[in-house]
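Notes from hallway chat w/ T.B., transcribed later so I don't forget. T.B. wanted the structure written out for a chain they're using in a teaching module, and asked if we could keep both sequence and structure tokens in one place. Agreed to drop them here.
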Amino acid sequence: MKNEPTEAITSRIFFLRLKQLERLLAQGDGERAAVVRQRLEEDIRSLPMDSVTVREHEREIAKALSPRNSGTMSGLTLWST
């Protein structure tokens, strides 16, 4: 078995939800996309805002959660921790 760095399960779930949102929007499935977007918003809101990594991306987080971005997560530039 090869020793490989692992990604936190919460990060993997988040990235999978982003991909799922993108596909649902591309398919025109707005109802299911809204559910996935809500879960993504909950994930983002649960981030530890006192974390240095999170604070560095405060603007991007605010933009992603903006009502103007309803239906997409535009403005969210993903970063790795």
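Follow-up for T.B.: The chain has four helices and no strands. Might be a good example for the class.
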